[in-house]
Amino acid sequence: MTSNDTETRSVLVERHMAHPPAKVWRALTQPHLIAEWLMKSDFLLELGHRFQFSEDWGSIDCEVTAIEPNKSLAYRWDAFGLESVVTWTLTESGTGTHLRMEQAGFRKDQEQAFQGAQQAWPQYLSALEQLLEGLD
């Protein structure tokens, strides 16, 4: 198989969260909570719902593509020529939740976006962990 321009890369971040999947799920799907660790959005937990994440620098166009309550969530993440998909996978463990975040779809010519995502996602997940600590 030869390498070509259609090949894409992914950013993958995995963390163990000392919280049950239902609690982590709330933080991933409730807009007021998402705003605390990621960005402001008009997210709705509804298949096909189009929404935006917004920040001072601009916005990201998204669409919910998959929902499996307390287990997985996926949405398109399109901005500045990047067409990607963010997939969250929650796996219950004896001591909480194994959380896996994958953002797939970075083309070879999108090195800056790829590097930015590699730096940003671990920070977002750290902010998510801090938020979960304070949630009931």
Explain the overall architecture.
This protein has three helices and seven strands. The protein has 136 residues and is α+β, with helices and mostly antiparallel strands. The protein has a single domain (11-129), classed as START domain (Alpha-D-Glucose-1,6-Bisphosphate, Chain A, domain 4, 2-Layer Sandwich), CATH 3.30.530.20. Strands 1-7-6-5-4-3-2 form a seven-stranded antiparallel β-sheet. Strand 5 and strand 6 (82-93) form a beta hairpin. Helix 2 packs across helix 3. The longest helix is centred in the C-terminal third of the chain and has 24 residues, at 111-134. It is globular. The chain starts with 7 loop residues before the first strand and ends with a helix. The mean pLDDT is 95.
Question: What's a quick, concise take on this entry?
Answer:
The chain is an alpha+beta fold and 136 residues long. The protein is 29% helix and 45% strand. It has one domain (11-129): 2-Layer Sandwich (Alpha-D-Glucose-1,6-Bisphosphate, Chain A, domain 4), CATH 3.30.530.20.
Terminal Cα span: 51 Å
Stated plainly, the CATH topology is called: Alpha-D-Glucose-1,6-Bisphosphate, Chain A, domain 4
Number of helices: 3
Assembly type: single chain
Coarse shape: globular
Look at the structure and give the CATH class.
Answer: Alpha Beta
Number of domains: 1
Mean pLDDT: 95
The fraction of residues in strands falls at: 35-45%
